[in-house]
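Question (not urgent): is this output format expected?
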Amino acid sequence: MRLLFVADLHYSLKQFDWLLAEAIQYDLVVIGGDLLDLSSPLDLDVQIAIIEKYLALISQKVSLVVSSGNHDGDSRNAADESVAAWVREARHEQLHTDGDGFDFGNVRITVCPWWDGEVTRAEVDALLEREAGQRGERWIWIYHAPPEGSRTSWSGKRFIGDESLTSWIARHQPDMVFSGHIHNSPFYGEGSWIDRICETWVFNPGRQIGPEPTTIVLDLEALTAAWRSVEGESFRKLGVAEG
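Got this back:
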């Protein structure tokens, strides 16, 4: 199985065009949050309507997974926390979104929403507890923010990852976690697009400007991961320690 992972497209329609054109080459395409852009002059409702069309077109070609990020909230819950209701409402048989857990071959994939406070964090915690009983031969999480302390959360000055995610990884020990959020960590010497927390591989493709997004391609049969950006390509065999 070949999985294509991108994150932080931030309403870059050229990058969505690229994704639409390339999706057919993969068994599964995953977008790890921040599909929208809060800094855009376009209203969120307009952005959502256009991105929903892209998601529909991509999911006609290949199974698609979408998790929400901090730019994607379009409503508030009873605790006044941001929620990406539109992401959940977009789900269908070929499109898995926030709160979903599903089997793809021998892999269990859990799609975590962005949490914005105690209530939504508790929802993620409960989701992972439920999913722990469903894990397959391998267990992959999709979660917008990288774990605190990982090189994938290096901002250039400090680590600014999610402490709750680090705790959840320690408790459940998934095989892999795919995140984004910290745009430049793969481009810093102290940062990286890949790291390991105990036995869990963690990934962050970063973000670049231009017609193509940064990407990570995971081959679950060969157990390899490849990162591609304007700076070139990097390749890792998973399970092999860095020299």
